[in-house]
Amino acid sequence: MERKFMKGNEAIAEAAVRAGCKFFAGYPITPQNEIPEYLSWRLREVGGDFVQAESEVSAINMVYGAASSGKPSMTSSSSTGISLKAEGMSYLAQAKLPAVIINVGRCGPGLGGILPAQSDYLFATKASGHGGFKMIVFAPSTVQEAVDLTYKSFDYAYRDRNPVMVLADGVVGIMMESVELPDFKEIKAPDWALSGTENEELKEIIPMCWSGEDLERDNIEMAKMFRRWEENDVQYEEYMLEDAEIVIASYGTSARICKTVIKEARKQGIKIGMLRPITLNPFPYKAFEKLDKSIVRKILIVEMTIPSQMIEDVELGVKGQIEIDTFGRSGGVVISPEEILNKVLEVKEGLK
Predict the structure, then answer these.
(1) What pLDDT sits at residue 175?
(2) Are 11 and 38 in contact (CB under 8 A)?
(3) Which InterPro entries match (predicted)?
(4) Terminal-to-terminal C-alpha distance of the chain
(5) I want to staple 112 with a disulfide (CB 3.0 to 4.6 A). Which of 108, 178, 211, 327 is the partner?
(6) CB-based contact 214:225 (threshold 8 Å)
(7) Residues 161 and 262 both lie in one domain
(8) In this structure, what CATH number is given to the domain that contains residue 228?
(9) Mind listing the pLDDT tens digit for each residue in 222-258?
(10) How many domains in the chain?
(11) Quick one: 264 and 222 in the same domain?
């Protein structure tokens, strides 16, 4: 493997190229602009195609078209831009087309601002488009993890014939770290792909309006796929949980900051650890359910959003058996270790 010092957004783009990506369409929006900028020249080097579309709506539909030909395709945007792609993502799911969507989140709601935030959790995991479809959603906390998860996303997308989302934020997108880049691989055009030849058999890969029974049949199959994800594809990290009385639940950049807090709190004699979801969907409900209720006295959810968006999933995991508290900053304010530590001390005091 090759090691390089790279900015997060550029590392994501390079990981996509090495995963076999051959088509990208997107539209500029901060804080993910380095992804299309990098791919504008990099894809040409590997025989791929880059299009700066006239809008986010156009971009996702270009991805739809490229994916229908079997060409490994990706788009990226940030929050408000991803909202504009929502209809196209739903069409990708209905047509059973693989694609990778990168969301380098900004603060909101509405237009929000260009600063990093974790305000898109509910959008990504619960309602990223109409029709009730779901995507596997990855949440990296380091540049290396962003590389690894982007690389794997193409495998999952083609395995399931379904879009996959990598949900990062502006901190992961703009920070620079040393990363190991994976080897190059090729994704062969699958049997279902459209070739455009005259003698090609009719393939209904772009459905417009199906009969109720046909669409219901596909919804049933999608539901089976979602259950398979829950059984086989959940990813999470346990950090210093062995004797933890306080368990932080956090993901992405916030979880990275929380590790610093946990180390300092441990020095002060506080028994604290962290359970970090890596897949936000499927969510690690069972990991929360198996927390030792005789030891864990409090769960503290830490996110860069107000109010907490992950709380509903954590509540489902612990089934009301462990008290939950939350702490967050919003509006693009990056949460600080000192603020989290003060909250931890407050929670610790409340346990006496």
Answers:
(1) 96
(2) no
(3) 2-oxoacid_oxidoreductase (IPR052368), PFOR_II (IPR033412), Pyrv_Fd/Flavodoxin_OxRdtase_N (IPR002880), THDP-binding (IPR029061), Transketo_C/PFOR_II (IPR009014)
(4) 50
(5) 108
(6) no
(7) no
(8) 3.40.50.970
(9) 999 999 999 999 999 999 999 999 999 999 999 999 9
(10) 2
(11) no
